[in-house]
Amino acid sequence: MSAETLYPLQNGIGNMVRSLFPESAFILNPALGLIGVVILVSILAAFLILLERKVVAHFQIRLGPMRVGYHGILQPLADGIKLLFKEFLKPKGADSFIFYLAPMLPLTATFLIMVIMPFDHHLQLADPAGGVLYVLGISGLTVLGLLLGGWSSNNKLSLLGAIRAGAQMISFEISLALIMLLIVMVSGTASLREIVLSQQGLIFDWWIFKLPFLGILSFIMYLVASTAELNRTPFDLAEAESELSAGYHTEYSGMGFAMFFFAEFVNMFISAGLATTFFLGGFLPPLIGISFVDGMLNAIPGFLWFFGKTFFIVFVYMWFRWTFPRVRVDQLMNLEWKMMLPANLLLLMLGAVFMVLGWAG
Amino acid sequence: MTTQSAEKYRLDGDTLPEGFRLPQSDAEDADEFFVNIGPQHPSTHGVLRIVARLSGETIVEAVPHLGYIHRGIEKMAENQTYIQNIHLTDRLDYLSAFFNNLCFCMTVEQAMDIGLPERGEYLRVMVCELQRIQSHLLWWGVMGMDLGGFTPFLYGFREREMITDIFEEMCGARLTMNFFRPGGSSFDAPDTFVPRIKKFIKIMYKALDEYNTLLSGNIIFLERTRGVGILSKEDVLAYGCSGAVLRASDVSYDVRKNDAYSIYDQFDFDIPTSTEGDSLARYQIKMEEIVQSLRILEQAVEKFPEGPYRSQPKAVYKLPKGSYYSQVETPRGILGTYIVSDGGPKPYRVKYRSPNFSNLSALNHAAQGLKLADLVTIMSSMDFVIPDMDK
């Protein structure tokens, strides 16, 4: 089947624009796509914040927001309005330009990565051949944002938080990159869509199962490394409120804080989305080889599979956050440099051996 | 205009916090910097201010500065009658309000030679052990929160609420309970007292299992606390530490056993000790203390006698001339009350020996050379309540 018949909606919109405005369609279509991404990010941020509040509430035997709308469903809206009206204060002696610039960087990074997320066969704004490299490159912007935010705040605790964030995120990015490299190696491509397509077939063809032992191991390591990269508990040292009275965003209020906050939440979705892409077959349904069941699974649109798997991993991140205590900064560094990094290099070598032996795909 | 002394301590435009040596500008420690932990820091639980001298994230020195909550309670005591003084005591360490009441009343009883009916004694033991659990539950939750896990905090409050309800029904207050009087207590226990405790004991044992699953056995928690903030036997004795801080360093001293007051000698319970002296040992001892308190409660509810709850009250207490001292084992250690009487209706001088003040003095010793995050761990494991150390 062609892409047009499989996914009529986005191609339909594209064709409509092309027939109505043949001259400017090459600008309008990407613009529509970008607007779509902006809307998606906004909705995701709001939804993830509500989800986190509800999940933590149930972990902690309470209800969470209940007043605004049915079961607090409009709470993110209320939060947003509140944040808009809050004053964005700048501490005395802070570096104005960098202080205001810093919160924008992580948010920018989330938009830029969202552009290449393969939500469905053709529900992807761009699919660069070096998608994995692009993801790794762009996510550096988040580190920069946190570092600059903490540094420009003119506050020692913020600076400590920023340095911790920088050290932590840069370290764990190495592990993350090595795990991604393993998948790039076994799937033979660095394009995110191609990586998903390389897992076509049954559920056992997903990389998490297809690589004997290595898949599940590297999936777990991906979860650990990405939790650290996301600055979430148990690795939320950059914003350890009990040690640094908040960390790099201590001095941020109103929208400045909200931008860091939104970026953090959407980044969680992105990390989960990448885990889905690399290990869980992305938008592919979990086929089991029984034609009747597979027919039903195939009938469910791919983007629903993608969101389903992604939100499951998002839930796992939240689970971590609300049950684990926090590690110490030197323990975190030990974990990365003395355990994760050598283990990842070993995994990579084993992956190569598996490929030579023909065990991987 | 700056005074001469301010000029003297000026270093690169920043005034050096008091109590610190000035590093030479070319010295190795010149790049050390000071960070205030508190008085409004989320992990200082009140208004404790600790000036931490850091080298990177390593603590060189952690000096506590007091005086942010000082209310002059010992001075106020000189202008209040003995009965009026009881209500000042529960403002000291509000998490062990009953113990503070009890300690003051015991001193008055000792001076006036007042006895207690058996029901009154049982009531004291039961209420105090309930409060020990209540206090430890809050500490447990806060310790979890200080180490970055927010969930234990709310789990601790769930069971704590049951005890608070019992106290509310008994004396109307939920935090600064003011209940004991010389010769007994101000009211008798309500009819629901014993059934509620029985129900609580059952629930608490189950909850303890849950706590252990959530925090005590967690690998991150163990890594964060094991070997952190070690105090040797000599250290704790030198600093005058008491409570779990003392017993974690292999000194088995508990006022309830070693200087038994009330009717504690009639109950069968153990005093847990440990040889490690680290934060984990302090944690485990406190968890074990909850179990021991439950054991005491189990025995007490079975034997809770009928009869008067208070011996004949006196309208005005006038302590005979002299000085009196009594001590109790609060959830945090030894609380002592020292009263000097000149024979009048008001004390001539009152002095409290508070457990937190002595425990705090060991903080710097325990934290030196560790990381900033460990300072929080040590503070949590020592379970400070600030109004008690800063009277």
Describe the structure.
The complex is a heterodimer of chains A (361) and B (391). By secondary structure, chain A is mostly helical. Helix content of chain A is 69%, strand content 0%. Chain A is globular. The mean pLDDT of chain A is 85. By secondary structure, chain B is α+β, with helices and mostly antiparallel strands. Chain B has helices at 4-8, 73-76, 82-89, 97-112, 118-146, 151-171, 193-216, 219-225, 233-239, 244-248, 255-258, 279-303, 355-361, 363-367, 372-382, 386-389; strands at residues 10-11, 14-15, 33-37, 49-55, 58-65, 180-181, 184-185, 322-330, 333-341, 349-353. Chain B contains 16 helices and 10 strands. The two termini of chain B are 35 Å apart. Chain B has a 3-stranded antiparallel beta sheet with strand order 3-4-5. Chain B has a 3-stranded antiparallel beta sheet with strand order 8-9-10. The interface between A and B is medium-sized, with 28 and 30 residues.
